[in-house]
Each structure stands twice: as C-alpha cells, then as structure tokens.
Amino acid sequence: MPATPVLHRAFAVIAALPLLALAACGYGSQAKDDDTVRIAAGAKRIDGLDSVRIGYFGNLTHATALVGRQQGFFQKELGATVAKYATFNAGPSEIEALNSGSIDIGWIGPSPAINGYVKANGKNLRIIGGSASGGVKLVVNPEKIKSLKDVKGKRIATPQLGNTQDVAFLNWAAEQGWSVDAESGEGDVSVVRTDNKIAPDAYKSGSIDGAWVPEPTASKLVAEGAKVLLDESDLWPDKKFVITNIIVSQEFLAKHPKVVEAVLRASVGTNEWINAHPEQAKAAANERLAADTGKPLPAEVIGPAWKSITFLDDPLAATLDAQAGHAVKAGLLERPDLKGIYDLTLLNKVLEAEGEATVDDAGLGAQ
Questions:
Q1: Are 253 and 128 in contact (CB under 8 A)?
Q2: What is the pLDDT of residues 226-248, one digit of tens each?
Q3: Coil, strand or helix at 30
Q4: Most exposed: 133, 169, 205, 353, by fewest CB within 10 Å?
C-alpha cells in the first residue's frame, strides 16, 4: 500500500541505518540476548513505558516481524520505549508466554490464536491486525505421488496436532472423501506430526511421502527433490487466507493503547516497505533468520518461498472463522464463540491516517 511521504521517508531513513541487535525478553524457544538498538536522540518513551515485549516465529510467514525488527521499524515508532523480542517454534508456547506476561504482543497463526482465546474463555488475547496470507503448500515425493488422488494411503507430515496446517490438511482430506482419525492421524491417509525443523530429514529418510507445511519448510523439501502438488491459496476465495495474525494481551491493550498503536503503525509501514522493496525485504528477513537461528536460507529455498507469501494488514477475519469451522469438522474443537476475538480499532485508525481503506472483523469484534 502506498505510504504518506512522511511515513515513507521515515522508513527509508531508518532502513538505511546500521542497526545493532536488541536485547530479547528471555522467554521463548530461541530468545536472543545479543540485541541492542540505536534509539534516536531526544526520543521519548510512549506513556512512560520502558519496553514492549514482542514475540514471533522464525518463519518467512512472520516476515513482517522479521523485517520490522531487522530494519529498525518497530523501534523507530516506539521512540525510547525499547522493543524487546523473543522467538518461538510453536503457537502453544507463544500463547503461554502471552498468558504469563512474558510477551505483550505477538505474531502467530490462526489456530493457536483461536485455541488460546477459547481456552481462556475469551479473556486473554485480541487479534489486532493481519500480517500475511498464503505460503502453505502440499509438497510430495514425485516418484510415489503423481496426482492428488495418489495422496490416499501415503504418509503426509503436518507440523503439529491441531496446528493451522494440520487442520487445513485434515479438512482437505475430508473433502476428498477420505476418513482420518484426527487425534491419531490414522486412516485413509496417515498424518505424521513432524516438527518443521526435522521434516526435510524425515523426507530424505523416506519416513514421510510428503508434507502440508508453511514456508520455508515447503521450499526446503522441494530442494530435497519434492514437488509442489497443491498451493493452499488455490483453495480459498481470491486465493487469500490468513496465515499470520498480530495478537496482544487484553490487559496490555487496555493499559498501553498508544504503544500498541505504535507497533501497528510500524507493522503497516513494514508491509508497505516489503511490498515496495521485495528484494531488499527478502534479504532483511534472511539476515534476521540467520541472527535468530544461526543459519540463513539458501537462495534456492528463500526465492520460491518468498514469492508464495502475500504481506498485508487485513486479518482476513472471515477466513479465520472458516478455519475454526474446519477444526470443528475435524473433531479437534467444539464450536467456539469467537465473538470478541478481534479489536481492529487501532489498526483502522492507523490505516485511516494513511488514507487507506479500513478492514473488517467479520462480525467477530469486541464490543
């Protein structure tokens, strides 16, 4: 989306600064302690708050957070309120961190956001914005699976029982007329819950025949010889579905709305910069991944992975509601009351200030 000249210039300047790393919040599977940031001279804390703690995954589908951190966009908007970070490998651990107060704001997939909201009876989090769509593929061994019908009887990996991709695959399998027990993964297709980090090795060893996974795992498997059989985007209206949301604890939102607004302003600006400078953004995301995980993605992985993800501010609320319905259909969730899971007030305020169209909560907004 086009930014105002002021916002665009501010992001262009901060993007060029040589940043040091920021001290992370010490909670999460890969929290880092080697980050410091250059805070602009004369910058002031927002509402007198010393810091805000931000969580995200080391996935390309969380590239808004990766790039926003790497380029200093979050710190620019936060002034002297220090952005602290923690990275996570799975949604449940990030929800736990949010519930315990170890993080305040997080980038996360739709299924853990739904599960966290439902388990807390709607009292722990709000979805306050979108971040990304797409970036999920069914990749398979082309020697064993040549068409969609060949998936029947094979071993297909998903990242975790009940996670966003697991629910999507179970729903797709059901639509093919195949029966699968959601809990055990046994049935007409064998669903093998496999951590994304070890999925490539599982594929190489032959213990799985394919996987329904997010990027960059899908492209890592392709680099090992797998072929893309289906892009999940093709199953959704307008080829868009939410893969990453921004959540905040309700307590933090109530106490520090100006800080939350600053983070959202940075997120909107980051997405604008990503879409305007895709190659620079891809490089920045990879630099952040290298810092967080110790290893950058090779060109043959990050190239195709990056192209399959759309970065946007709209949380695509109707698709989250549909995903909840898929989890219910699979027997993994009782029909949830998601009324109140969204509060898009501050996001729409930021979008209006930028002259952009506001976004809709599909009737699931907080009163």
A1: yes
A2: 999 999 999 999 999 999 999 99
A3: coil
A4: 205
